[in-house]
Amino acid sequence: MESAHSATLAPKLSPDNFPRCFQLLWLRRDTLIDNPALTSMDSDSVYITIFSESEETEETLIAQADEILPISIISKVTLNKLEVEYEQCSHGKVKDSRNKVYTLMGMVKLRWHKVEKAKSYAEDFYVVDIDTSFAILGKTARRA
Fold this sequence. Notes:
Blueprint: H1 20-27, H2 29-34, E1 45-51, E2 58-65, E3 72-75, H3 76-82, E4 87-88, E5 93-95, E6 101-114, E7 121-128, E8 135-137
Parallel strand pairs: 2-8, 3-7
Antiparallel strand pairs: 1-2, 1-6, 3-8, 4-6, 5-6, 6-7
């Protein structure tokens, strides 16, 4: 039988008790613990570092890998963290494999690599106005 004291204890550890940014890590915790540098693009997420050609700044994040999305996309917030300018132009809209539609604002050439891997890849990323650090590697991204 549960006492009145035990009912006041902290709630059970659950991703619902975490802010959204930590919920994503919670959902991926087993994969990230077992292999912090994911080695397969078959997974729907990849732990990567993105940087400019000058390599002055970099940003490490969990990017989605999407074989249906015809291009790679990156958030304006991530570019601000990288202190990188992008070429503004209207490229229309694109839909990912989860049927989310993104409005493209421009394009930027960046390099990326999987965390703890030496080989990096050049990629044209199309910029979207999303208020979080965010990237999707589309089917054009090199497969390491």
